[in-house]
Amino acid sequence: MDSSYDVIVVGAGPAGLAAAKSAVDHGAKVLVIEDHAAIGTPVQCGESLALSSIEELGLKPDPSFVANDDVRIIRMYSPNKKKIELIMPEGQKTPGVILERKMFEKLLAVKIANSGAHIYTKTPAIGVLKDNGFVTGIKLKHIDEIREVKSRVVIAADGPSSNVAKWAGMEIYSDIKKFASCAQFQMANVNIDPKISEIYLGKVAPGGGFWILPKQKGFANVGLGIAGNDPKTALAYLREFVEKDERLRNGSIIEFNVGPVPVGGVVKKMVDNGIMVVGDAARQVNPATGGGMKFGIRAGIIAGEVAASAAKNGDCSAKFLKAYEKQWNKEFARRFKAFEIFKELIEEMPDEKLDKLCEQIGTREVPGDIDSQTDLGSMGLRMIWPVLRNYPKIVLKLGKFLPSLR
Ligand SMILES: Cc1cc2nc3c(=O)[nH]c(=O)nc-3n(C[C@H](O)[C@H](O)[C@H](O)COP(=O)(O)OP(=O)(O)OC[C@H]3O[C@@H](n4cnc5c(N)ncnc54)[C@H](O)[C@@H]3O)c2cc1C
Asked: Is residue 48 lining ligand 1, measured as CB closer than 6 Å?
């Protein structure tokens, strides 16, 4: 490890790795530090990702890191089990995949290291260096050794429990009410159709949703997110569901994980002098679906480029770095607002009304013309819009945001 870099990325999750790749590709000298002993583990994720994000990272989806690229049906159940199905016709490319995230991140890290970035695991940031109102580096612990490493720009990609931006004096919320609490079993020997992703709403996962995401035949991520202030644990809900479902009851649990997801909206300020915040650390998670990888990866790609350019120009002020925040907001702010409103409208809807809405939506075929930038949440919302249009309150609050859903 050298004593100074153009860019130090803290956290080697999808957002941090995307930032590192982009900064290296734009000519910066980059250090990535990761707290865990291995990149990609533990996986705290349902592993569902838009294909476009993989392509944006310069990777071609292949079986070494894609577990399932043939989910044809997204099946959603209302509180009283009314069913919606969004069907992808055979022969049409699916817009999303279920990853083998451990391999995805490891392969990406190797690619980035081969491009010249320095990557160190078992190396947590333990503080930021500051000088004259600028973040100027990171204090870190490399296995058993404490070091101070200088940088022009720090990119905080340290996930939902982020500290780096807070150490720098930035406002990053940690209020439990703004987080979903998640638990997940990775289950083998379950009787699950590998072509169908399932989502359940209602009391099985209050304030969130329950998912079954198939990785292969008989192998699936089974989990849920609930409101962060629910007095019952996410694990308790997970156990209840699994025990009641005869397809899952006798399955084996290959992995278990729990984790928070920030669903309370994106932070207002993503940059300050010498520092940028990306991914879950910046709360860039779809507030309705809890999906964050696509938005964190895009944030990383934009931030890495801006950071490299800032280092090259010798201007790492908040004013210069703000180009990242502006671009991210341009691409996603209105979309996130739409999902925030959609979530509120659904949450305030009585169960019977939600059942009726789901009945009206029924089964729909995914149009053939979805472009490669489409995310699954936006695709779903656009597809059910013809039905939502019959609800005046929804039209009034959500209608103007529809064009931003891609
Ligand atoms: C159960 C569950 C299911 C989910 N399912 C999906 C899904 O299907 N699809 C989807 O898109 N999203 C999903 N999400 C959300 C998704 O996992 C996150 O949005 C995504 O991982 C965010 O990426 P990130 O790089 O910002 O943060 P992370 O992936 O959390 O990575 C942050 C990294 O920073 C490291 N770190 C933290 N502190 C330090 C430090 N001080 N020094 C050095 N390193 C540090 C951490 O060890 C970690 O590796 C799910 C989340 C959960 C909990």
From this structure: yes
Question: What pLDDT digit, counting tens, does each position of 281-312 carry?
Answer: 999 999 999 999 999 999 999 999 999 999 99
Residue 209 beta carbon below 6 angstroms from any ligand 1 atom: no
Distance 126 CA to ligand 1 centre (A): 19
Q: CB within 8 A of 348, min separation 6: which ones?
A: none
In the CATH hierarchy, which fold is given to the domain comprising 4-46+101-175+264-333?
A: FAD/NAD(P)-binding domain (3.50.50)
Give the CA distances from residue 47 to residues 104, 191, 194, 234, in Å, rounded to whole numbers and listed in that order. Answer: 10, 19, 14, 18
Residue spans per domain, the chain: 4-46+101-175+264-333, 176-262, 336-404
In which residue ranges of the chain is pLDDT below 70? 369-373, 406
Q: Say if ligand 1 is within 6 A of residue 105 CB.
A: no
223 CA closest ligand 1 atom index: 1
Q: Is the pTM above the cut of 0.85?
A: yes
Fold designation for 176-262: D-Amino Acid Oxidase; Chain A, domain 2 (3.30.9)
Q: Would you state the pLDDT for residue 402?
A: 78
Element (H, E) at 126: strand 125-131
